[in-house]
């Protein structure tokens, strides 16, 4: 009976998809296919002149720069906003991207401080060592101008650095079966649990691929799939997502250190194992299974090569453009945005408004309550909370990397003891005062300059270190409405305490940085 129901559903789904495809094919004036052209352009020499780069990345908002007859406005220039705008541009649409920061790119932007360049969010990216779907997508939105440098085969390293004890190190390898073999060598008595874990990685990966069907069919059909349970015949992804990472992994082994190694990189998606669905962790591991990469020339290359694609159809990306709210007509349909420019408010109009400002900003700040609350996403907005905050520490080292005993072309995940889930949750529950007295339980350590083959040409004789750690938002909430760089001595003092503490802890592992 279940098989009959599934067959019937798949037949209906196939008809629905065919109907949508035929409508698209025979529509009066379909937009050009954004993937119609293969971006096999010759890669141009890297632009390292900062003025030329700023002309692309830091184009300030003024009325005269707003293109006429816009097809769409995108709020926010993170990679989601930029890639959406680039695809629309490749389909012939004129798009305006508005960014409140002074530089486009979101987590893909970089900044220069005291002669050092730092990236704020791109530490490594998977699936760039071969022509994957992800790489093909990035080739499309950058016209093939974005290059990637592979990290070392051992792209991550897990360290347990308990005070007054020898540091325990566990390398994480790319390549099919390599990491699994390494773990079996270190934990021979846990071979069965290790094999099961890696089988689950593949099982959930295939389930994720088939789960994409919900993006291709009407919402009413998705509702039927969910309510009847037929979704579980199409994909196992949602079954696994009902289980936390901790529930699955803790069931594979009693060895706490091995459990922690399986979940070591939860910081990449910002949610501890007991709070995250199991697929989040498995998809991250499979994402890097064939290696990690870093953008040649630094993270800002992503935005630098995406913006010209947006401009090619008459659009542009403007910064220092704080969108106050989305303009709506009486029926609730969006028709523009209002931008704050000094003491003035500028209205900009377009038939399509796309928000890349994030779920909470969009529904709590940019839309009026009566419209936001009518959305099917409103229950999610009101019932969920943002994940844990994080703090980044940027360090410039005035010597070449070759003279330092550090990690090259890889990252380190440093924990102060076992049971990283409990370690994290206990820390997040602390008060600010308790946090200032405690050891930092988790540190992500990276030396970005060692990953970029162009670094020495741009910044010879210098090395950069980036540290990322936990920082509950409530610890700093009282300063949330203060201006950047104008939050006062107490705020700056708190930053220095955590920054110096992080550097001190890392110095025990890499003493040469002192």
TrEMBL record:
Q: Which InterPro entries match?
A: FAD/NAD-bd_sf, Retinol_saturase
Q: Can you tell me where the transmembrane regions are?
A: none
Domain of life of the source? Eukaryota
Q: Does the keyword Zinc apply?
A: no
Q: Does the keyword NADP apply?
A: yes
Q: What Pfam families does the annotation carry?
A: NAD_binding_8
| Keyword vocabulary terms for this entry | FAD, Flavoprotein, NAD, NADP, Signal
Family, per entry: Belongs to the carotenoid/retinoid oxidoreductase family. CrtISO subfamily.
Protein name in UniProt: All-trans-retinol 13,14-reductase
Q: Which organism is it from?
A: Halocaridina rubra
């Amino acid at each position: 009976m279940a098989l009959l129901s599934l067959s019937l559903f798949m037949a209906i789904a196939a008809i629905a998809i065919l109907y949508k495809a035929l409508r698209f094919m025979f529509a009066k004036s379909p937009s050009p296919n954004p993937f119609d052209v293969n971006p096999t352009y010759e890669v141009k020499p890297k632009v390292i002149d900062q003025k030329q780069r700023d002309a692309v990345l830091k184009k300030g908002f003024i009325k005269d720069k707003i293109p006429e007859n816009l097809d769409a406005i995108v709020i926010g220039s993170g990679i989601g906003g930029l890639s959406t705008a680039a695809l629309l541009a490749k389909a012939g649409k004129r798009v305006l991207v508005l960014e409140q920061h002074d530089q486009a790119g979101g987590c893909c932007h970089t900044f220069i401080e005291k002669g050092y360049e730092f990236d704020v969010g791109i530490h490594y990216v998977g699936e760039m060592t071969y022509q994957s779907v992800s790489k093909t997508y990035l080739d499309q939105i950058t016209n093939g101008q974005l290059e990637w440098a592979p990290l070392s085969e051992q792209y991550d390293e897990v360290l347990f650095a308990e005070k007054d004890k020898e540091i325990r190190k566990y390398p994480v390898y790319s390549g099919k079966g390599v990491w699994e073999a390494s773990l079996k060598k270190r934990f021979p008595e846990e071979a069965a649990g290790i094999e099961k874990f890696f089988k689950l990685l593949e099982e959930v990966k295939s389930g994720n691929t088939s789960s994409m069907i919900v993006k291709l069919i009407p919402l009413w059909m998705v509702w039927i799939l969910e309510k009847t349970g037929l979704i579980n015949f199409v994909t196992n992804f949602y079954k696994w997502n009902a289980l936390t990472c901790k529930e699955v992994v803790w069931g594979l082994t009693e060895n706490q250190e091995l459990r922690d190694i399986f979940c070591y990189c939860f910081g990449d998606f910002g949610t501890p194992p007991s709070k995250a669905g199991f697929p989040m962790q498995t998809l991250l591991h499979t994402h890097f299974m064939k290696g990690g990469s870093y953008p040649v020339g630094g993270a800002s290359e992503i935005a630098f090569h995406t913006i010209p694609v947006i401009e090619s159809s008459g659009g542009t990306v403007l910064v220092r453009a704080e969108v106050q709210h989305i303009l709506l007509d009486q029926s609730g349909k969006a028709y523009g945005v209002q931008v704050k420019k000094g003491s003035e408010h500028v209205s900009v109009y377009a038939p399509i408004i796309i928000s890349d400002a994030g779920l909470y900003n969009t529904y709590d700040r940019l839309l009026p309550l009566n419209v936001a609350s009518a959305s099917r996403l409103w229950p999610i907005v009101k019932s969920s909370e943002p994940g844990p905050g994080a703090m980044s520490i940027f360090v410039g080292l005035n010597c070449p990397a070759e003279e330092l005993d550090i990690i090259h072309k890889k990252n380190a995940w440093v924990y102060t003891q076992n049971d990283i889930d409990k370690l994290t949750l206990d820390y997040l529950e602390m008060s600010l005062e308790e946090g200032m007295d405690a050891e930092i339980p988790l540190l992500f350590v990276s030396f970005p300059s060692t990953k970029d083959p162009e670094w020495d040409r741009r910044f010879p004789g210098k090395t950069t270190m980036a540290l990322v750690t936990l920082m509950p938002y409530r610890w700093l909430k009282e300063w949330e409405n203060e201006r950047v760089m104008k939050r006062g001595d107490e705020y700056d003092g708190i930053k220095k305490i955590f920054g110096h503490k992080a550097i001190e802890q890392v110095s025990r592992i890499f003493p040469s940085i002192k």
